[in-house]
Amino acid sequence: MLSRCFQIVTLVTLAVIHHCTCANVLMITMGGTKSHKIPFWELARGLIPRGHNITFINAFLSDFYLEGLEEITPSSYVVYVRNFTNWDLVGARIKGEEPVPFVDMIKFGYEACDVLLSDSETKDFLRSGLKFDLLVLDGAYPECAMGFVHFYGAPFIYINTVGMYMGSLSTAGNPTLYSVTPFLARPFSDTMNFIQRVQNFGFYMVANIMHSVMTRGKLQDIVRQYFGPDVPGIYDMSRNVSFILQNGHPVLTYPRPFLPNVAEIACLHCKPAKKLPEVKPA
Ligand SMILES: *[C@@H]1O[C@H](CO)[C@@H](O)[C@H](O)[C@H]1NC(C)=O
Ligand SMILES: *[C@@H]1O[C@H](CO)[C@@H](O)[C@H](O)[C@H]1NC(C)=O
Ligand SMILES: *[C@@H]1O[C@H](CO)[C@@H](O)[C@H](O)[C@H]1NC(C)=O
Description:
45% of the residues lie in helices and 11% in strands. It is an alpha/beta fold.
């Protein structure tokens, strides 16, 4: 009798613990290419079996059904991104050109934010009364999504999808050593000569200034227009990121100093290798 009672108490306790530790997670990537979604999907695939519900806002229509994952793809945002980012990233590299002109990156930043936040599907979603326990944002471009962080008043983490991009890591306090950390759009490695280090420094400076001009000059106002005038400074908010899943690895993105709240997760989406077919010698 006692052991039966103990069994029931244990089951009820476990059920309560299970219920209490399940969370509603909101993921947002505003990346201009579909590849940004892949590490988010992998994280979702790991969280759903543990009882968490995932809502995922992005610009690319979902192409499979996964129980526990709901993708929100506001239509004007989908159309805008598809039209804007018909980039030929590989062809430009082969021709030795910049894959995406700096000016276009800046323009994409604030236009995409305005299109997403003004879409009626986004507005309906915000009005639906859903509550979230955690937001997972794309570290490649989390600034616009800070509006959602303020709106839901929940903690947030990043997946830094672009492993070579240092901007968000740097804002969160991670040192970016210009002498050994190559700028993402330069073919430098962690061993640079003096001239390359100077060029590397120059690229970081220009990128940081343009980022700051876009964020303070444009995004801040757009986010406040949709989420209210009391939204704090975007950089003040993004500095508070709780944890960063960094899509890199020393082998791929060079050794770097990271704070303890950064975990390198390159190859999160990798599957075990298949065996190669055997070739019989002729
Ligand atoms: C997740 O979604 C299911 C089905 O909509 C719901 O029954 C469950 O309560 C949700 N879980 C949480 C933590 O809200
Ligand atoms: C598509 O992009 C082009 C050039 O970037 C722009 O002129 C045009 O207005 C855009 N069309 C739509 C439907 O957004
Ligand atoms: C950042 O976090 C600190 C400590 O929790 C808090 O006092 C501060 O208000 C936060 N800043 C913003 C802009 O959210």
